[in-house]
Amino acid sequence: MTVSTQARAGSTQAPAGNMKEGRTKRGSGARHQARTGWMFMAPFSLLFIVVFLVPILVSIRSSMFAQVPSGDGLYGGGELVDTFVGFDNFALAIGSATFWEGMGRVMVYALFQIPVMIIAALGLALLLDTLIVRRPGFFRLAFFLPFAIPGVIAAMIWLYLYTPEVSPFMQYLPEGTDFMAPGTILASMANMTTWTYTGYNMLIFLAALQTIPRDLYEAARLDGATGWQIATRIKVPLLRGAALLAVLLSIIGTIQLFNEPVIMESANPWMGKAYTPMMLTYNSMMGAVSPSGTGIASAYSLLMAVVAGVLAIVYTLLQRRKGASA
Amino acid sequence: MTTEAIIESAKPRVRKAAADRPPKSELPSPLARVLGIAVLAVATIYFVAPVLWVMIASTKSNSDLTSTFGFWFAEWNLQANYESLMVWTQGLFWQWVGNSIFYSVTAGVIGTLFAVMAGYAIAKFVFPGKKIAVGVIMGGLLLPVALLTVPLYLEFHALGLVDTPWAIIIPSAVSPFGVFLGIVYAQDAVPTELLEAARIDGAGEIRIFFTIVLRLLAPAMVTIFLFIFVATWNNFLLPLLMVSSPELKPVTLGLFGMMSYFAPAKGAVMLGALLGVIPLIILFFSLQRFWRSGLASGAVKG
């Protein structure tokens, strides 16, 4: 009921010749706008608070507490009692060699996986955007196909592809090739994510390429530019925004690397329960690594969010500066 | 997209060459063409071969998997693999697939509606706190979501929601990216004059939204629904933490449990993987053009 009366009040907002009258009407229109705006915002905002904001507060609170069993001293043996420990969990997390080792692995992984994937996606998008093939639709579908396969299932598939007895191609590779040795397993996992996400990133680039006006290429042609020059001097620079987005999302995705290492660990127990920071967090929570508990798990979570945020900001600033100087 | 390709291929070649194709000078040189096609062919093999292999492997027995050529069929063992899959999953396999569908559809429908409402509000209304709301939501877009999962578990545990379908549906239904798309679409697709005309006719805001705006935003809604559906189907960490009852597991979690806790026939695992992704692949490819339009608006604005 209130809504319809407000609607009527708002409807009188139509262009008014008289300034004074217009102002008062705009006043009630603003109120109407504010109410209606928030009415439509309310359902999403409510869920957003439940799913994003409360968990952040919960993890900040939880990171200040440690759970001490009151019973016989065994984990889960007695009732767990929250004890305030201040920043102890953070000190523990920041001082944890296991955490930083995991972070180091994820960084090494990101340092080669992200460039390889982005460059491959960019190259394939540019190839499909030139007129080399008549029907790019087929290739778009083929490259995008892996994205339709859930990460866990993709990891299971690749795990079998890496297993010598089952793999359809390992018998053709040189003797002693081992995709799951300590020195190669990171690269093997990088291959899994590259396989899954290259097509997705390629579509981002293709979508951005389609927004570039075609006359730009014609003008370049008239000035005598080759196809290669058009690609490198016109298309690639114009894709900077899309590339920034793709890299940022990849950095954020890599920090949380979980599915692939968990699947790999199920077949290679030597990897341990803390191979990546996200595995460490999950397993701290589950009591599979020491120290365990929700307090330390929350501290790891927050620390990872800080690292991800710092990386995202540093990368954005670097790109901006590059963009400004170019 | 597929229909486009069909229409494209149905056109007479000559006309296409004359009208649709750009002048000869814009075509790549023969060498560039051959190289380009070679690269695309290698990439196609890389992306498609594992999927083909899964299809073939799911028809093989364990011994044939190890002894026969990987990319061709051996003795047909599909039936036995299916039975083995059902035994290993204790008959729960189709329930898991059903759970995945239920979680993804419910989260998709709720999430799409809420995201579009919020996007519409941000695009078309002026209200106090709007800038802050947009900032917070866009911050959520860049927040590593997995990091929220542990505290989310603590919160839902306190609310008594752990090990219920809501523990998966509620977090999956919140999509900052959906709101972002909603804003972009509503700015372009909902003319303010139309809203004003409807108001002059005496329509209430809720009625305007449900009868006019939702229709205008239908393409955006399909895109947002797809994004949420796929993200929910693919999520692993969230159900891993939230759900422990076997009857509540989505198919990804069920298959992981089957593979990691037991050592079932590999052909059966591959069959499960295949059957677990087929609904997703069908949905995906039948609505593919919406993906591209969604990514396009992301790429332009991002």
Shape of chain A: globular
Order of helices and strands of chain A: HHEEHHHHHHHHHHH
Tally of DSSP β-strands of chain A: 2
| Mean pLDDT reading of chain A | 83
Biggest sheet, spatial arrangement of strands of chain A: 1-2
Helix and strand string of chain B, N-terminal first?
Answer: HHHHHHHHHHHHHHHHH
What is the rounded distance between the termini of chain A? 58 Å
Q: Percent range for helical residues of chain B? A: over 70%
* Computed structural class of chain B: mainly alpha
Kindly estimate the percentage of residues of chain B that lie in beta strands according to DSSP. under 5%
3D architecture notes:
The complex is a heterodimer of chains A (326) and B (302). Chain A has 326 residues and is mainly alpha-helical. Chain A is built from 13 helices and 2 strands, in the order H-H-E-E-H-H-H-H-H-H-H-H-H-H-H. Helices cover 70% and strands 3% of the residues of chain A. A two-stranded antiparallel sheet of chain A has the order 1-2. The N terminus of chain A is likely disordered. Helices cover 77% and strands 0% of the residues of chain B. Chain B has 17 helices and no strands. Chain B starts with a helix and ends with a helix. The N terminus of chain B is likely disordered. At the A-B interface, helix 1, helix 2, helix 4, helix 5 and helix 6 of A face helix 1, helix 3, helix 6, helix 7 and helix 8 of B.
